[in-house]
Automatic annotation (TrEMBL):
Membrane topology term: Multi-pass membrane protein
Domain ABC3 transporter permease C-terminal: 293-417
Ranges that cross the membrane: 20-39, 290-312, 337-361, 387-407
Pfam families (alphabetical): FtsX (PF02687)
Keywords, in A-Z order: Cell membrane, Membrane, Transmembrane, Transmembrane helix
PANTHER family: ABC TRANSPORTER PERMEASE YTRF, MEMBRANE COMPONENT OF TRANSPORTER-RELATED
Primary location group: membrane
Locations listed in the record: Cell membrane
Name under which the protein is recorded: ABC transport system permease protein
Length: 424
């Protein structure tokens, strides 16, 4: 039957050439839409390294023109006051109904735009200065965000002079960068590349982390946030609430705790859901909306174009259909013939289209045209993506084409043979 369909396509090659050309153009555009949407979906559903469900970030501000020193104004008194206020704050928030845990951190909270980077030497190697992201966290940070670690004991890791740290791997499970990396389990010590050459002992590792849904996994160093650095204004304050207490929590907590959290020069500025805030600040709305619009436009035009084309072709071939029916072909056989012809034309176009797309993908043309493209390397996507793109693009076009051609095929199969032959 395929051989017979090929003969039909060849006999109608002038008309079919335009259909194939239309299919090629649509296939190429749809290929890059599918490529980008698949990349975005893969990145979004990947674990970010934190469990942010039912978690909130609480921001404190400092009253203007207030002195923090309570007596003589020396630095020592200031540190003691900050620690005392932080402890009072911690107790009051923990005692609020529904709050499971609270933690302090600097440059460590999920989906925060600010970050701190620094260079380190790994173990005894002093030739490769590798840059890592640094996150200072309190002990409760791991409980709030439910981060699993391989460390035997985290409690007390912030004791002075211990210099204990945790590390996280990149996507491949290694620790380092593109130029120099080692297996995560082999790392025992890190030495700062700054002038002090401070050494840190690695006591374990945590899950791989990334800064946003669509960012790559970056190696992190988790350091203890020592109590001398506690400052409610400067720290990121995160809390986890029980699932039952999550409903309207922001509104209730803000209303009931505003006065209780007026501590010294500090006052509560805002309370935000980390999940909701992440979807606002970490979502490339413009790029996605553009791809959605192009894809929807393509689907509509493909449908209308194919149904119009095959309606015209069917009407022009009434005598052929009538002759087939008169010679004993069934109505279902006529439908299968038209369906097969459609899919074969699409297959021919897709073979040409896939070669065009792969070659364009190896150039910088899309980037020069400012078209959103998938960053496959950061997402850990390999050459298998070409097969996925082909399957999705071909499958979507095939479904749309079969739906569009179904009605013309049905009408063609209903033509009485005598009437079709008389028209001829």
């Amino acid at each position: 039957m395929i051989r017979h369909i090929f003969k039909i396509i060849w006999n109608e090659r002038k008309t079919n050439a335009w259909i194939v050309l239309e299919y090629i153009l649509v296939f190429c555009v749809l290929w890059f839409c599918v490529d980008y949407l698949y990349y975005m979906g893969k990145c979004y559903w990947e674990p970010v390294g934190f469990d942010t469900k039912n978690t909130y970030v609480l921001e404190m501000q400092k009253k203007p023109d207030t002195s923090f020193n309570n007596t003589e104004g020396n630095g020592e008194t200031e540190v003691v006051d900050k620690q005392a206020l932080a402890q009072t704050f911690l107790n009051r928030v923990k005692n609020y109904p529904g709050v499971e845990n609270v933690c302090f951190s600097k440059w460590a909270a999920p989906f925060e735009r600010s970050s701190y980077m620094s260079g380190y030497y790994i173990d005894e190697d002093t030739t490769h200065n590798v840059t890592f992201r640094l996150r200072w966290v309190s002990e409760n940070f791991f409980d709030v965000f439910r981060i699993n670690t391989t460390a035997k004991e985290i409690s007390g890791w912030d004791a002075p002079g211990t210099n204990q740290i945790l590390i996280t791997p990149n996507r491949e499970g290694l620790f380092g960068n593109e130029e120099y990396s080692v297996p995560l389990e082999d790392v025992k010590k890190l030495t700062s590349s700054t002038s002090d050459r401070k050494e840190h002992t690695v006591i374990g590792s945590a899950e791989k982390m990334k800064d946003g849904y669509f960012n790559s996994y970056f190696c992190n160093i988790l350091l203890p946030l020592v109590r001398e650095e506690y400052d409610l204004r400067e720290m990121q304050i995160c809390l986890r609430v029980s699932p039952g207490a999550d409903k309207d929590f922001e509104e209730r907590f803000t209303k009931e705790m505003r006065e209780q959290l007026m501590l010294g020069p500090y006052f509560m500025s805002s309370l935000k859901s980390i999940d909701k805030n992440a979807r606002i600040t970490n979502w490339p709305t413009d790029d996605l909306n553009g791809i959605y619009a192009i894809t929807a436009f393509l689907i509509l035009n493909i449908f209308l174009g194919i149904i119009g084309t095959f309606w015209y072709r069917t009407q022009a071939r009434r005598s052929e259909v009538g002759l087939r029916l008169a010679l004993g072909s069934t109505r279902w056989g006529v439908k299968k013939l038209i369906f097969g012809e459609t899919l074969l034309l699409l297959f021919i176009a897709s073979i040409v289209g896939v070669n065009i797309c792969i070659n364009i993908g190896h150039t910088e043309l899309l980037e020069l045209l400012d078209i959103p493209i998938a960053n496959r390397m950061d997402a850990g996507i390999g050459n298998e993506q070409e097969f996925i793109n082909y399957a999705l693009a071909f499958g979507l076009l095939a479904v749309i084409s079969l739906i569009a051609v179904w009605y013309p095929a049905r009408q063609a199969a209903k033509i009485p043979p005598a009437e079709a032959l008389r028209d001829e």
